[in-house]
Amino acid sequence: MLLNKKRNKKTSLNKPLQMPEINLSPIVVFDVGARSGFGLLNNLSSKLDVYCFEPEPTSFQELQTFYAEHNPFNTIQLLNIALCNTNGEATLHLTKHLDMCSLLEPDVEQFKREFQQVPNSQNWFDSLMLLEKINVKTERIDDFALKNKISNIDFLKIDTQGTELEVLKGAEHYLTSKKISVIKVEASLANMYKNQAFFKDVDAFLREKGYIFLDLIFPQKNNKKWWQKVLKLDKKNQAPIGDAYYILDFENQQNESKSPQKRKGVVNHPKSWN
Fold it and tell me: Positive or negative, the Cα torsion across 39, 41, 46, 48?
């Protein structure tokens, strides 16, 4: 974690979040690549309007079953589509481990060349094994949000195995109009898919749009993701994938959105993301 060492006591993520006593309208969340369900913003769950986008059929059915019995949110919509930078259809590559499914073709040989010396790397190679290809519906964030009369997206989470930059390009209007407040995006440092975007590409794109890089977090042995199980991660053996957090630079924003400043402060508080 890049910034933890310099956090002061006032901003420490270890301190309990004292939520302000304000009447918030529903907080809009887009979970793009929602296979495991949305597990962030737990302190605010009852105020969230969550849109889950998951194109992989088995994962989508699991989401339907789970949220039919356990729904902590104000509202939730499950959508069996892939978000990217085009409207229409695309090929979804189904892999041995469903977490690795992508609109991009896996590049196992390139990944082997770069990471074959990493302990337990064979588990990564196996998980990327291509099993099947299917066609899925695609849509751009801009078009989906405008069609559904969503004025602002308070929290955008993207985990799409290499197509994160294409998802962001599909939100060009909302990003340029400063209508997305917080972004959590998977950051890849390794060649895993053909023609994928890397962390540096996503970072340059979001900085140009006026977003501030906040942190880059890699899964370690206390992380609940499956990577920890197959790779036995610790501080000396980290995965080549992490999660990058960005927030909109409200202080330099010329055209304020309709959301009150207090509302932005609540959503932007890092402790509320846990």
Answer: negative
Alpha-carbon gap, residue 270 to 212, rounded angstroms: 13
CA nearest 118: which of 189, 186, 197, 199?
Answer: 189
pLDDT digits (tens, 9 = 90+) for 134-183: 999 999 999 999 999 999 999 999 999 999 999 999 999 999 999 999 99
pTM score: 0.81
Higher pLDDT, 19 or 40: 40
Q: Looking at residues 202-219, what average pLDDT do you find? A: 91
Dig out the tokens for 44 from the structure: 């605010």
User: Tokens at residue 105, please?
Assistant: 């073709």
pLDDT value of position 9: 39
For residue 272, report the phi and psi dihedrals to the nearest 5 degrees: -75, -10
Q: What does the pLDDT read at residue 221?
A: 45
